[in-house]
Design brief:
mainly alpha; 458 residues
């Protein structure tokens, strides 16, 4: 019988079925979440006359948006494994405090980030590669988007705790509500009210606010066992350290994404290919679309593995690792094949200009050349995070992005002709090296040791 207040007892039943039960709603939820930004890019890319420049301006804001997501993962996603392990161990008091402290951290973090972005917006955007023309579009979008930072961080950060309590469908509704509203409002504000890129930002902020309202109603209601309560919101150093130490992995992954995006934009400008910032926006958008499924399966496996790890059921943890990796491997191979066979389909979602499309096709092929190796990266990273192996998770996040991608982005254009291809080649090279390093380390230092009765969650 499931524990009171928890829809699913992750310690019983088929592990693959439990993971799929978590992953399928998460997959839909992630697809819907992706629509927040993807729909903006699609509509903006089709603005008559200004679409390409506006899309380039939007692309310049990606590092800032990624930084906001990084702090969301630090304070939100970081607490979810700690929360799940506490539930699995039957430590309800700790679980409640993790949830309350996470909420406080998300609130404080969002206020600070909003102030920083609004005060230093111009130097930030020019440092990211903006010029006088693209700055107008980037600033118009980011100034409004920044005002919704609190709604974005709290809604997305607390949604992990809804999933962790066994309510993946409710978590899906969180993003479904906002995304559907965004789909409806985007064309109204952009085209009907003729607000251009500002309209996209307004629609996004209103949509995230709707998601926030839903999350707060649920997590202060009677249905979940663990709810947001004022007494648990007082920060405790040990709880904060636990949340941030686990969340630091996701934080590094997203923050290094921001750094990588910034370096790509600057490098493209340096080699005289500034127009390719728009191409990079499209390529990264396609990557985001393709990554939804594999992110969902690894995210769905995380609470199952964390719960069983906390309960000392190592055989079930191993089963979760095996299933999530095999699923991710098969899917990434399929995604790569789709990109190879139908590149124009994906590109024309975001652009109509023929010359722009012709430039994007080879860039997309190069970027996805070794996409299948991301299954190894996802499997290793998600396992380290789920089992609170923080040092290894952080190292491999830094290894792939900071040690591999950023230097390769700067160096490869010097040796590859045309130079612009070197910027896109950095991704597949890092996928192979970083993915294998992460997975093999996880296999030999975690997976193989889980079959030993002496291996505990210390």
């Amino acid at each position: 019988m499931a524990r009171k207040g928890i829809a699913t007892d992750f310690g019983k039943g088929s592990v693959p079925k439990l993971i799929l039960r978590q992953a399928l709603p998460l997959m839909l939820s992630s697809l819907v979440q992706l629509l927040y930004n993807i729909v903006d890019r699609i509509y903006i890319g089709h603005i008559s006359g200004d679409g390409q420049v506006a899309l380039t301006g939007l692309g310049l804001t990606f590092p800032v948006v990624s930084a906001i997501l990084a702090f969301t993962m630090l304070f939100g996603q970081g607490g979810a494994p700690v929360f799940s392990i506490a539930m699995g161990a039957g430590n309800d008091n700790r679980a409640r405090k993790v949830l309350g402290n996470s909420f406080t951290l998300l609130l404080i973090g969002s206020i600070v980030l909003t102030a920083v972005i609004l005060i230093f917006m111009k130097p930030i955007l020019f440092a990211l590669g903006a010029d006088d023309m693209t700055y107008v579009y980037a600033e118009s979008y980011l100034r409004i988007y920044a005002l919704g930072t609190a709604a974005t961080m709290i809604a997305n950060g607390l949604n992990y705790y809804i999933t962790a309590q066994g309510f993946p469908v409710t978590a899906m509704i969180t993003t479904l509500t906002g995304a559907l509203l965004n789909i409806i409002l985007d064309p109204v504000f952009i085209f009907v009210l003729d607000m251009n890129i500002k309209g996209a930002a307004i629609a996004t902020v209103l949509s995230q606010t709707a998601s926030l309202v839903w999350v707060l109603i649920f997590l202060t209601g009677k249905k979940p066992k663990f709810r947001i309560e004022r007494k648990d919101m007082i920060l405790e150093s040990k709880i904060v350290i636990s949340i941030c130490s686990v969340g630091f992995t996701g934080f590094i992954m997203q923050f290094t994404n921001a750094a990588t995006q910034a370096v790509c934009n600057k490098t493209l400008n340096t080699i005289g290919a500034g127009s390719y910032v728009g191409v990079m926006t499209i390529v990264s958008s396609v990557r985001d679309i393709m990554s939804v499924v594999v992110h969902a399966i690894t995210s769905g496996a995380s609470p199952v593995m964390s719960f069983n790890y906390g309960a000392g059921k190592n055989d079930r943890v191993r089963s979760g690792i095996r299933f999530s990796f095999l699923f991710a491997f098969i899917y990434t191979a399929f995604a790569w094949l789709m990109v190879v066979l139908f590149p124009r389909f994906f590109i024309t979602l975001f652009a109509t200009d023929t010359s722009f499309i012709e430039a994007a096709v080879p860039a997309l092929h190069i970027y996805f050349l070794a996409y299948v190796f991301m299954a190894f990266q996802f499997s290793g990273q998600s396992t380290f995070m789920a089992l609170e192996k923080n040092g290894r998770a952080i190292f491999f996040s830094l290894f792939r992005k900071v040690i591999l991608v950023i230097p390769l982005t700067i160096m490869l254009p010097r040796f590859i002709d045309p130079a612009v291809n070197g910027v896109f080649m950095a991704e597949p090279v890092s996928n192979v090296i970083g993915g294998l390093a992460s997975f093999l380390t996880m296999y030999f230092t975690v997976y193989r040791r889980l079959n030993k009765s002496s291996y505990s969650n210390n």
